[in-house]
Amino acid sequence: MNFGIIFAMEEELNAFLKDVKVNNNIKIYGLNFYEVLFFNKTLYLVESGVGKVNAARTCQVLIDKFHPDYLINVGIAGGINKSLKVLDIVIGERLVQHDFDITVFNHPKGYVPKVGDYVESDKKLLNLAEKIAKDNKISYQKGVIASGDIFVTSKIDSLKIEKEFSAKCLEMEGASIAQVAYLSNIPFLIIRSISDILGDNNLLTYDKFLIESSLKIANFLKQILEKI
C-alpha distances in angstroms, 27 versus 33, 61, 182? Predict the structure, then answer.
């Protein structure tokens, strides 16, 4: 069974690689794919770079080259739901691109032609992730993750996105990976660790908790992969 694992940043990738053995390093179009055997599963790990285009492009290269059975995107995010705390886990039940706007054509904000407004994660992966979180008493929430090519620092903007999409958190890659996976008919899961709370000095909190959040989500991912 093959898994494609996409990280946006080096810190997130390194948090996973620190305790595993890399069997092969394959370079394609400037992307480094790390092949890892983990509990009899072959993983292809890659750092996409920040943003929706980087993430989507990397996802498609991964699919074309390695033909994964599942795709998983993990990393950090900014929390916008009042009940979230830094280092909480958000399991992406649905993904939306909050900055995709063709409302002039009578579509709701976030609606993508041939895809829809929300893309749903694979139920099997979703249920397993939630079970592991419960069994290990991990503080988590399940819900909408909103993606956009904006690092949001305004509390007003974050509240607007939360209200419009019922989103739990914001990041810059997940929904584009979800779109590519959906169009390629590959089951996927997007999970995030909260590094900062939007509008609450989140730039300072982001820097402080980047590594700790990356380690937490990497460990959570390993628990999921062990049980699949």
Answer: 6, 11, 25
Determine which of 16-25, 74-83, 88-97, 201-210 has the lowest per-residue pLDDT on average. Answer: 201-210
Record the tokens describing residue 222, joined without a space: 């390993």
In this structure, the dihedral spanned by the alpha carbons of residues 71, 75, 77 and 83, taken in order and rounded to 10 degrees, is 80
Closest CA relative to residue 169, chosen from 194, 206, 138, 189: 194
How many residues make up the chain in this entry? 228
**pTM score, whole prediction:** 0.93
- Amino acid at site 164: E
**What would the pLDDT profile of 172-228 be if each residue is shown by its tens digit?**
999 999 999 999 999 999 999 998 887 655 555 666 677 788 888 999 999 999 998
Instruction: Tell me which residues are annotated as active site.
Output: 12, 196
Averaged pLDDT for residues 128-138 = 96
- Between vectors from CA 109 to CA 104 and to CA 110, what angle results, nearest 5°? 125
Q: How confident is the model at residue 52 (pLDDT cuts 50, 70, 90)?
A: very high
Contacts for 41 with CB less than 8 Å, ≥ 6 apart:
1, 2, 3, 225, 228
Please check whether residue 218 is in contact with residue 74, taking contact to mean a CB–CB distance below 8 angstroms: yes
